[in-house]
Amino acid sequence: MFYICKVKIHEKMMSRCLQLGKNGLGNTAPNPMVGAVVVHQGRIIGEGATSPFGGAHAEVNAIASVTDKSLLAESTLYVALEPCSHYGKTPPCADLIVREGITRVVVGIKDPHSKVAGKGIARLREAGCEVFVGVLETECRDHFKRFLCFQEKKRPYIILKWAQSSDGFLAPDPSLRKADAPYWISSPASQRLVHQWRAQEMAILVGTRTVMDDDPSLTVRHAVGKHPLRVVIDVEHKLPKHASVFSDVADTLVLVAMDKQPQDFGRTSFTGINRNMELLPQLCGILYEKQINSIIIEGGAYTLQQFIDRGLWDEARIFTGTRAFEKGVTAPSLPQDKIVLESKSGADRLTLYYNV
User: Which of the two ends of the chain, N or C, has the fewest CB atoms closer than 10 A to its terminal CB?
Assistant: First the structure.
């Protein structure tokens, strides 16, 4: 009976760690959004989450929030991700835990980062700490999916997003469009949700055709949060400087052929790619080097289908509107066995897929 109660306490406290960590979505990247709680005799006496990038880690904030530090030696620290053991922008959290006299630590999952990878747990155990690992492991892996994908697959977590008509078209036939005006498929509620998603991820990508047809800004305007890095695939360097995606309100990275690479301007920079090599692996390599751990693909049918055909995606979010086009650009197709959840978003249907 004691063991069962103990397990329930572990799960309850780890669940609180995940709740705290979610508050950092969009702010801590490329660092993981970690949560931590300090528990004394079954009661939380301190809690914290990872500060915006460059700031204190969750363990530091949780320990700092404890009013009576004398209780730490009799407390248990719960943390969703293995405490770090190396110097980065901040000192090692494992050293702080040892120094504060905490002798019991419960960890959600190990940190796969090469500078940690079990070293934090080893440091704690060497100092005499009792360490438990693997509490709510499945939930923790889902919570840290961006960070884990970046560390384990050496690329960003890739989210495909598009809106399609009720009869499966991504865009209407040109005869149905008004010149110089966007053609909205999704509802205002869905449009606001998309801006919230943009604020949660590090980058957003479109191709040349999308910029030429729609002139998108790719910024966060209907939600609170930072603008993502705008990534534009423009291999032939066709896009004009006055395109909205090149405005100075946010950073933009343009991928062009090496033989066409122009000079950077404003907040726009250009990176050359080898046109004789596959584009998407080059893209993932460039983003990995730039520490971009998540990206939304908002391109057109061709760009989206390239990611799908190569299996290079982790999640897809698809809005289906109420209007029928009868003719136009056919929306990309995904395996139906990967549907995870369907819900309403304003007047639209939102379908989520996970490529697992």
Answer: N
Is the Cβ–Cβ distance between 304 and 330 less than 8 Å?
Answer: no
Q: What is the DSSP letter of 29?
A: T
Q: Is 218 annotated as a binding residue?
A: yes
Look at the chain and report how many structural domains it folds into: 2
Give the per-residue pLDDT at 117: 86
The CATH number of the domain where 95 resides is what? 3.40.140.10
Domain boundary among 124, 148, 172: 148
Q: Six-digit token pair at 167? A: 């009869």
Q: Which residues of 320-347 are buried (b: 16+ CB within 10 A; e: fewer)?
A: bbeeebeebbebbebeeeeeeeeeebbe
> Same domain, yes or no, for 89 and 215?
no
Taking residues 234-259, report their average pLDDT: 96
pTM: 0.92
Check whether 221 is labelled as a binding-site residue. Answer: yes
- Is 10 annotated among the ligand-binding residues? no
Q: Residue 67 is encoded by which pair of tokens?
A: 């009013």
Q: Which of 11, 47, 59, 278 is catalytic?
A: 59
Q: Residues 205, 247: one domain?
A: yes
pLDDT at 124: 94
Residue 116 corresponds to which tokens in the numbers above?
Answer: 């940690």
The domain in which residue 233 lies consists of: 156-354
Domain match, 137 and 269 both: no
Ligand-binding annotation for 184, yes or no, is yes
Per the document, the length of the chain is 356
**Quick one: 204 and 312 in the same domain?**
yes
Q: Does 111 belong to an annotated binding site?
A: no
**Co-location of 211 and 127 in the same domain:** no
Write down which residue in 148, 180, 203 finishes a domain: 148
Q: Is residue 107 over pLDDT 80?
A: yes
pLDDT tens track for 318-345? 999 999 888 999 999 898 777 889 999 9
The secondary structure element, H or E, covering residue 140 is helix 137-143
- Whether the per-residue pLDDT at 180 is higher than 70: the answer is no
Residue 326's pLDDT is what?
87
**CATH of residue 177:** 3.40.430.10
pLDDT at 114: 82
Q: Is 47 a catalytic residue?
A: no
